[in-house]
Amino acid sequence: MTECTPEQMSFGSIGRREMVAKFDGGTITSNGGVLLLGGVEKRIKLLARFAECFIDSRDARFVEHPVRQLVSQRVLGLALGYEDLNDHDALRRDPLLAAVVGAVDVAGTDRRRSVDRGCALAGKSTLNRLELSTESADRYKKIQALPERMDDLLLRLFIESFRRAPKSIVLDVDATDDPLHGQQEGRFFHGYYGNYCYLPLYIFCGEQLLCARLRTSNQDGAAGTQEELARIVSGLRAVWPKVQIVLRGDSGFCRDKLLSWCESERVDYIVGLAKNSRLKRAIGQEAQAAEQEQQQTQAPARRFRAFTYQTRKSWSTSRWVIGKAEHLAGGANPRFIVTTLLDSTSPIALTEQGRRLYEQVYCARGEMENRIKEQQLYLFADRTSTATMRANQLRLYFSSFAYCLLQALRRLALQGTQFAKAQCHTLREKLLKIGARIRVTARKVWVSLASSQPWQAEFRIALQRLHGPPLRR
């Protein structure tokens, strides 16, 4: 039987040797890979600029943790897998995290209060006051968050990732549920998801995040999309006046007001369209042909048809629709999309173009769902448990910038490696969670990374690229 004492723990024997463990290894961290995130920060200054989205009204004479360090500590903590503020009561003792955050006194030996000595970083209470920032400073919360600046920073980070103006970009929009388990402000029951939740709106371009907006769930899934797109499109065209912008979304965003806005603002779109009896009749011949082929081959069969269509009441004009007549082993599976991207007059060419647009362009929107899952599952965007919508939106911003930091690591340092398309949790487990021994001397902070780390080659490649010239598209 294993016998343990407070000082020494026994784990049985290996041959004639007894295996004994103690918590006496000295200053050791499991976050050695945070050095890579520090390298990303030096390249794009994400955390420094994020800190500029706050106004600090505290008395500088009594400030031990500047906003820059508080913001960096919270974002890096999320990137490293620490979702709760409570985690920071232990993390505040990590000298390596303190060094990357920018604390000069990495060992915390010069803290004012004796109880804080040995803790270079802020604890949960200080970080909680940051998250509860209000619109104007008051007696207890003297740090103000400026959401407009944060929205602008997400857009600027995206623009700066390009070396030259792209010819075309696709903006993916989608909504998802963020379940609530308390009495948070803006809490409503959503019939489709079957629970109390928020209904955040996300806008991505490829892997890059442009908008994460927290919304109540007692409204249409497309609510607010036009306003967010107007802001983003205006910012993009101020820098790239000739870029083609394409909006892509599922049928939840097929709203006449939104489509009409796109048409008036020269924004192309390819959006899902809910099926109805009229649409099914329009592809009747194609559906019959697909069914006959499926019965003969016993394999899924599909046909396409492009045609103009207008609803009887809800649409203000007719639009191009692409219908997919698909027959599977389980029966018919018709699908429809509405788009401005059709440009041919030949019926045969229209059909082939419709197939390409559906299979290669529209279906690619499914990749956005992986990006949302990354942020919600692995960067804790669903930790919206504070009382107010404003504080929960700020938490969503912290998660968003943690995602941007890891996405920049992929883009700047991991292209061509096995981690070029790795999801955030894979990057964390294989490149960030590295055991390291820390020694702090008068002149240096010595970081001894685990010799048995399996992905040392990729780590060195990433670090070399982060220290090299910019790699942009």
Q: Could you walk me through the main structural features you see in this protein, from its secondary elements to its overall organization?
A:
The structure is a single chain. With 473 residues, this protein is α+β, with helices and mostly antiparallel strands. It folds into two domains: 207 residues, no CATH class; 225 residues, Transposase Inhibitor Protein From Tn5, Chain A, domain 1 (Alpha-Beta Complex). Helices cover 38% and strands 20% of the residues. It is built from 16 helices and 19 strands. The strands form five sheets. Strands 6, 10, 11, 12, 13, 14, 15, 16 and 17 form a nine-stranded mixed beta sheet that branches. It has a three-stranded antiparallel beta sheet with strand order 3-18-19, with helices on one face. α1 runs parallel beside α16 and α7 runs parallel beside α14. It is globular, with a radius of gyration of 27 Å. The termini are far apart.
Question: How would you briefly describe this protein structure?
Answer:
Helix content is 38%, strand content 20%. With 473 residues, the chain is of the alpha+beta class.
Ordered list of secondary-structure elements with their pairings:
Elements: E1 9-14, E2 17-21, E3 28-29, H1 34-44, H2 46-51, E4 54-56, H3 67-79, H4 88-91, H5 95-101, H6 124-131, E5 143-145, H7 147-160, E6 168-175, E7 178-179, E8 188-190, E9 195-198, E10 201-205, E11 208-213, H8 225-239, E12 244-249, H9 256-264, E13 268-273, H10 277-282, H11 284-297, E14 301-309, E15 319-328, E16 331-332, E17 335-339, H12 347-362, H13 366-378, H14 389-413, H15 424-432, E18 436-440, E19 445-449, H16 456-467
Parallel strand pairs: 6-12, 12-13
Antiparallel strand pairs: 1-2, 3-18, 4-5, 6-10, 7-9, 8-9, 10-11, 13-17, 14-15, 15-16, 15-17, 18-19
Helix pairs in contact: 1-5, 1-14, 1-16, 3-14, 7-14
